[in-house]
Amino acid sequence: MTSLLSLTGIAKTFDNGVKALGPVDLEVQQHEFLSLVGPSGCGKSTALRVIAGLLAPSAGKVEFPGGNPETAFVFQESTLMPWASALDNARLPLDLKGVARAEADMRAGRALERVGLGGFEKSFPRELSGGMKMRVSIARAVAAEPKLLLMDEPFAALDELTRQSLNDDLLKLWREDKLTVIFVTHSVYESTYLSSRVVVMGPRPGRIAADMALAAPENRDAHYRLSPEFTTQAAKVSAALRNAMVEHA
Amino acid sequence: MSAALKYAVPVALGIAVLALWEFLVRHYDVPVYVLPAPSAIWAALVENFASLMQSLWTTLSVTLEAFALALIGGVAIAVLFSQSRAIERALYPYAVILQVTPVVAITPLILIWVGFDHINLVLVIVAFIVAFFPILSNTTLGLKSTDHNLIDLFRLYGASRRQILMRLQFPTALPNLLGAMKISGGLALIGAVVAEFVAGSGAATGLAWRIVEAGHNLEIAKMFAALALLAALGIAIFSILSLLEWALLHRWHESAIKKTA
After folding, report:
1. How confident is the model at residue B202, as a pLDDT?
2. Which residues of chain B have pLDDT under 70?
3. Nearest by CB to B149, which of A79, A83, A126?
4. pTM for this model (two decimals)
5. Are B26 and B155 in a shared domain?
6. B145 in contact with A, Cβ within 8 Å
7. Rounded to an integer, what distance in angstroms lies between the CA atom of residue B8 and that of residue B10?
8. CB count, 10 Å around CB of B29?
9. Which of A59, A137, B170, B247 sits 20 to 30 Å CA-CA off B74?
């Protein structure tokens, strides 16, 4: 395994004096599915934005040993342009990179098909359900063929069934495209189901309280959700999260 | 309510009111210099058709010129404001002062500066001042209401300021701009009429002057005819801008979504 991302002593203090994060050291390997779990306000989102380069850290270094990877970001809301069709939304990164229209249309169309939205190319966001909008958002993220996919509680606002189905689709994309995913979530179960590694963060200012590799079969599915293995792993994550809270108190 | 009924009801009401008006004027023998019957107004309209159309055209062209200037100027300065907070801080108070000072009070000054020989320019300037502010203020608001996450996403993909402005901020501001255009279109017409009243000398020959002139001569039916044309002009401007709004927004904007009860 080769390291894709390395954070050294990353800390963030906002202008208003709030210490949001750190210091944090974290090494992320290629093709890891890493979940950042922690209570609200522990700086998970801040960490994600620092990694994306959207926020400058107050201290520390963000390094990509193999060069800057193509990066995509998925927010908690689908964050679509309401005036643009699903296809136009999915094509956005390609448009901004100056990819020729015909090729961009083709790639965006394929991305929509991969998230199960073939046939909805011309639909506008207001015509789509919450889950479908999130699928467009994911299609937009994978359309530019990223190496690194950053996701900030993307499924938190969705109902349980939609969330599970999106979890499975996300895992499929992760496997097929050899993505490296950093996934911020509140949910112990979601992180356990998805991840190859879970990093638990304590309350503000967020620091890493636990870092655990999860042993899980490559092909996770509905059976895995009900298996004793899954329950054991989830209990481990849950205990680590509780510890992180207690240590701080 | 069915589409036919939606239009039939107000039209029927209008016809009923006109008929009642006609009947009352005839029945009580109201003198024509107090309240002319609709038929007399129609007759005045037909009789003075050429001069009224000439005036309508003058008022319309002043209104359109002022509106176009307000649109271009308002959007341009709003873009400037959205790009630089310092410029906005410096200029915004003066835009407000221009807006809150009653335009009737400034018109004589503009008249002196620009001169009676350029009376149409005076009218355009006054109408512009009235129509400008809603465009500026609403477009500025719209440009600033852009979803921060979308801006972040654009930045992540290396978008330039220009791309963010054209692809993200403009479409975001479009509903605000179109709403402001509906207000400003009407205001430009009001400005054009008010300015002509203040100028008042007969140098300008728009519909407002026809009203003043007819008033002096106690041609009340002609006054009403000019008034009806002004109202028709206002309605036409509003309708066209509403249509434009619908054409640009109906596919995606909340305001245009039909509620199915």
Report:
1. 64
2. 1, 201-204, 256-261
3. A79
4. 0.85
5. no
6. no
7. 6
8. 6
9. B247
Q: Say whether both B17 and B135 belong to one domain.
A: no
Of the partner residues B156, B159, B171, the one whose CB lies closest to the CB of residue A54: B156
Into how many domains does chain B fold? 2
Contact flag B150-A52 (C-beta cutoff 8 Å):
no
* B44 & B24 share domain: no
Q: Chain B residue closest to A127 (CA)?
A: B252
Q: Are B157 and A93 in contact (CB < 8 Å)?
A: yes
Whether A92 sits inside 8 A of B257 (CB atoms) is no
Whether residue B153 and residue A73 make contact (CB cut-off 8 A), yes or no, is: yes
Within 10 angstroms of residue A145's Cβ, the number of other Cβ atoms is 13
Same domain, B59 and B9: no
Question: CB-based contact (8 Å) between B151 and chain A?
Answer: no
pLDDT at B229: 94
CA nearest to A139, candidates A178, A166, A100: A166
Domains, in order of start, for chain A: 3-69+147-248 (3.40.50.300), 81-146 (no CATH)
Q: Do B252 and A96 touch (CB under 8 A)?
A: no
The predicted pLDDT at position B260 comes to 45
Q: Per the CB < 8 Å rule, is B254 touching A75?
A: no
Range of the domain at B97: 35-249
- Residue B254 domain flag: no
pLDDT over threshold 90, residue A45: no
- Same domain assignment for residues B1 and B85: no
Sorted by sequence, the CB contacts under 8 Å of residue A240 that are 6+ apart come out as A198, A200, A209, A210, A212
CA pair distance A20, A38, nearest whole angstrom: 13
Single-letter amino acid, residue B167: R
- Looking at the structure, tell me whether residues B135 and B204 fall in a common domain: yes
Within an 8 Å CB–CB cutoff, is residue A215 touching chain B? no
Q: Are residues B79 and B133 in the same domain?
A: yes
Mean pLDDT of chain A: 88
Structure confidence by residue, pLDDT tens digits, B62-75: 999 999 999 999 99
Question: How much is the pLDDT for B99?
Answer: 84
Q: Are residues B112 and B219 in the same domain?
A: yes
Q: Do the Cβ atoms of A117 and A89 come closer than 8 Å? A: no
Cβ atoms of A156 and A76 within 8 Å: the answer is: yes
Is residue B95 within 8 Å of B171, Cβ to Cβ? no
